[in-house]
Every structure is written in C-alpha cells, then in structure tokens.
Amino acid sequence: MYWLLSLAGALLVGCVLALLLAQVFGRGERLPDVSSGPQRAAHLASIMESPITADRISGIRFSVALRGYRMAEVDAYLRRVSARLAELEATTGVNSPNAAADAEPNNARGLVPENKE
Question: Between 51 and 75, whose confidence is greater?
C-alpha cells in the first residue's frame, strides 16, 4: 500500500510540475492568429502574389491548422510553383531535371575541366 501511495504522490507532483512549467514557459513564442481577419488576407497575399524564386520557396511559411498546415494554402502555392516551372520549362526547352544538369557546362557544376594539351 505504501508503494501505491508513493507512486500516486510522485505522479501528482509530476503533473503539477509539468503544468507549472507549461504556464511559465508556454509552448514558445505565440504568433498572431491568421485564420481570419486582415492578417489572413495579408498572409494569403504574401503567398500568392510574391515572386517565385528559390529563396522565396525555401522561406515560405504556411499557417498551421489543427492537424498540420492548411491544405488549401499549400495546394494553391504548389499550383503556382507548378505553373511557373512549366512556364520556365517551355521557354528553355528543358523538361526533365537531368536535362538541365546535362545542359550546363562542366565548370558551372563545379567540375574542373580536363587539360587537353
């Protein structure tokens, strides 16, 4: 019986400590809610109207929903990226990842050209 009371006491102390730490430190920095209002409109505008560049793609942020990112935002952005890449492929004539690598000169890929003397 003593072990059972000790275990229950330890669990109670652990739960109280966890709640106290959660209240003091929280889950990190709270971000403004962008699920509605002018923040949502500005957020969607930044996703949909900013130029598609490699830096922008690596820095894109989607608002978080209950179970991950908002699928509508991700799907809309991926449609934009897909359309832009299709446009670039059409203008350059490159339609596969390997074709772009093969079209580059060796020194552009960091390879040292051979000495042909």
Answer: 75
